Description:
This protein is of the alpha/beta class. Helix content is 51%, strand content 16%. The chain has helices at residues 3-18, 24-41, 44-56, 62-85, 91-96, 104-111, 126-135, 151-163, 176-185, 217-225, 258-279, 292-295; strands at residues 98-101, 116-120, 141-145, 166-170, 189-193, 203-207, 210-214, 228-235, 242-246.
Amino acid sequence: MSTADRLTDALYGLGWSTVKKLPEPVAVRLGRSIADLAWKQRGKGVLRLEANYARVVPDAGPERLAELSRAGMRSYLRYWMESFRLPAWSAERVKTGFECKDVHLLTDAIASPRGVILALPHLANWDLAGAWVTTRLETPFTTVAERLKPETLYDRFVAYREGLGMEVLPHSGGTTFGTLARRLRDGGLVCLVADRDLSASGVEVDFFGERTRMPAGPALLAQQTGALLLPVTLWYDESPVMQGQIHPPVEVPESGTRAERTSVMTQALADAFATGIADHPEDWHMLQRLWLADLDPAKGPS
């Protein structure tokens, strides 16, 4: 393991061992201070976040984009402070830490014999939403985690999420899709963060007026297993309670090839994600290149 990898692993370990012991107001202030410092340094992540916001809010000038990126970094660090502290939260704190609109769409689906797929973008704190599902709704679920480097850091994330009641599968595992399909055929719940394609073989969609790729997995799983596919969006307000919205289900088209049906369904997911991101752009934690024009300039608009 390289020195950089050891340092990265040690910093995350310090976060989970130390931040969770801090009083909540202290953790909030610490997160905001770190966010403001990172924002002032104008590093690559902040500049990328700002460039992504420019797609979401196309009429924003430089001053508005700077305000958004500062709020975005504060939201991002709120996510990390909460995540470091989640293992120490009481069950009651988890239950009251999230409020969700139209949650009946989820609870009715869970009560049915069909499997359920929740698909969401990198908005607010998806780990908190997951902990709320396992705690308040008393429903375990299966999810997928990107294989991080070093391997010890990936192991930390798996242990963290398993400690919150989730079954975690590796994104790069050859049997992952089959395992997810089995869970859904058994009537289980699967939760997938689905606004960024990690395979470079995802489905092209229109997203805020430009082309990008999003994972085909949610749509393919719904077609193959008959599971209900529900988009979810999350956001923060000024309170300690995170907010969420369950969107109407994405239906499988009655006609077309599998590829055509997958394209239509993935575009429907992208549209639901775009609605939530446009309403709360500062809570979209996308510090990576996303649009094809940024990944490959030849794919950009003419």
